[in-house]
């Protein structure tokens, strides 16, 4: 009996093509589900626009965000300056465009950090229980007992102003809800029949957690992180408003509102337009997270 090498290669190639086709099919189905929900589609579109603006900021902004033109200070919106200028004559639209980079930097870095941290602590507490659960959850309760903005203020005051310190402070205040969620999911999974079967086959606790519990907790954690992004934007803007975030002359949205509040009665655009940018993007992340919850939650199938 002979086996053709060409047929084996062909079958392997067909299998690879089938996997790629199935992956693209799942992605297309996921995008179609998002498009079917109007609010989710709007939120996803705004977030996508925010990302494109941040990436192509040098080509989108008509002026440099730091260059001053005192002859045009506090100019109202016009054809030359779409959103007007601030007290130093800097183009507000250009500063908003470059400020999107700072906002996305904070949001993405905090999300990438708090996700694994909260997931690790939550599944560990939920799976092992006992003293491990008690210690980790008491620490979590301490962090949850303080309002996130107040706790972030305390951390930034201790670390000092600066963008990196803002990221650290928000990270330290944003992980407890994710840990609580991961723990609740793990408590409902650890007594499941398939987990008991895996244990009987000799799987170590690390393998059970990594291969079976963590993948099942991921959808809920991703949804929670997406919905937390709006809170991250607001907290970062609040710290910037108080002068504890990105330092002047960086075009951070909260700092722009802070500097423009002095002229708000006469020149409304200086503070109102950055505030609208924060509002619109916060709503967009909320809409996106709400849609992901409907799509990824297996109980909605």
Automatic annotation (TrEMBL):
Residue ranges annotated for the ABC transmembrane type-1 domain, each copy included: 104-289
Membrane topology qualifier: Multi-pass membrane protein
GO BP term, example: transmembrane transport
SUPFAM superfamilies named among the record's database cross-references: MetI-like
Keywords: Cell inner membrane, Cell membrane, Membrane, Transmembrane, Transmembrane helix, Transport
CDD domains linked: TM_PBP2
Keyword match Translocase: no
Entry-linked Pfam families: BPD_transp_1, OppC_N
Transmembrane residue ranges: 39-61, 102-128, 140-159, 229-248, 268-289
Subcellular localization, as worded in the UniProt entry: Cell inner membrane; Cell membrane
Matches recorded under Gene3D superfamilies: MetI-like
GO cellular component: plasma membrane
Family of the protein in this entry: Belongs to the binding-protein-dependent transport system permease family.
Protein name as it appears in the record: ABC transporter permease
Natural source organism: Rahnella contaminans
Taxonomic placement: Bacteria, Pseudomonadati, Pseudomonadota, Gammaproteobacteria, Enterobacterales
